[in-house]
Write a structure and sequence with these properties.
Layout (H helix, E strand, L loop, with lengths): L1 E6 L3 H8 L7 E7 L3 H11 L3 E3 L2 H8 L3 E4 L13 H10 L4 E4 L7 H13 L3 E4 L7 H11 L6 E8 L3 H15 L5 E9 L14 E8 L4 E6 L17 E7 L2 E6 L2 E6 L3 E6 L2 H21 L9 H20 L3 E2 L8 H8 L1
Parallel strand pairs: 1-2, 1-4, 2-3, 4-5, 5-6, 7-10
Antiparallel strand pairs: 7-11, 8-9, 8-15, 9-10, 11-12, 12-13, 13-14
Helix pairs in contact: 4-5, 5-9, 7-9, 9-10
Amino acid sequence: MYKTAMLGCGGRARGHADAYRFVKRGKLAAICDMNEERLNNFGDDFDISSRYTDLDEMLEKEKPDVLHIVTSPVIPSSEKRIRYPLMKQVSHHGVPAAIVEKPIAIEGEDWKQIARLAEVTKTKFVVNTQLDFHPKNLELKEDVAEGRIGEIKFVDASVRSRPAEQGAHMLQLVSSYIDNSRPVRILGQIAGSENLNSDSHPSPLHAVGHVLYENGLHVSLAFGTEMAQMASDDPGIYGHKRVFVAGTKGFVHWRFSSWERSTLADGYESGQLNYGEQDVIAQANFTEAIFDWLDDESNVHPTHLKQSLVEFNIILGMYYSGITNEIVELPFEPPDGLIDVLREKL
């Protein structure tokens, strides 16, 4: 039984904690939040008595096997990025594994800091893009992997929220369907400055990108309220996430609350999904996959840090392509101050 702990007791943390109803090999034993009211409410609701307002103290006393880092990437009412300092702190304590909420970074500076940390840390960091583990997604990916739709020819994916907010989900889903092929170049366009001063996820309001991967696949990406309208089955900003994979013999299409596929063997099929029911199981399976990696070094988690950095690098490349009106080769070494440049451009 693995011992786990939680940093951050806000709304998203409740999704992490609720999934422990289905986690078989781990127990959430300690929590930490600087807001004592939020900390105590969370502890009471999930029956966790070990409560801390200081991360160092919790890590020293509890020595968890896995830490959930469920915090905003930016300190509210400031522009201070806190993913890297927290991850460095966790690495310094020698925590065996940590689950980090997305996005892993906001712009070039923190992406480069975390990329350097990834080369030296012994902590097994993973990014919490749990859609990969949704039961229906797993089923559709098996269809693709076993050749039921033939050879993949094209992928189309979109989210209605902003790139920094939900883009990591979409890009990780794309990676999972194409066997983590590496992106090699992107042409992007950006629009909308309204969200660049966001307290939590500063980014352009709308963006599109066309990505070429090293296996020859072309992938179309769309972010934002104006660009992600088509093929939507949910009216909310956060309720529109989708990936469509077209092959020579059919297709699969996963959406927030429905799915469809077409194969030569079974023809066209479709159905509805309860996202909440799917997501709590996905979060539990995601957490169990951390334990698999701790058990066996060769059983690497699909959203491990280096893979997630590759995916966020696509977003940074898309920003820069929109600024320069040029195709950007990937991997991309982002310049400092991208958000400031975006403010000036948009």
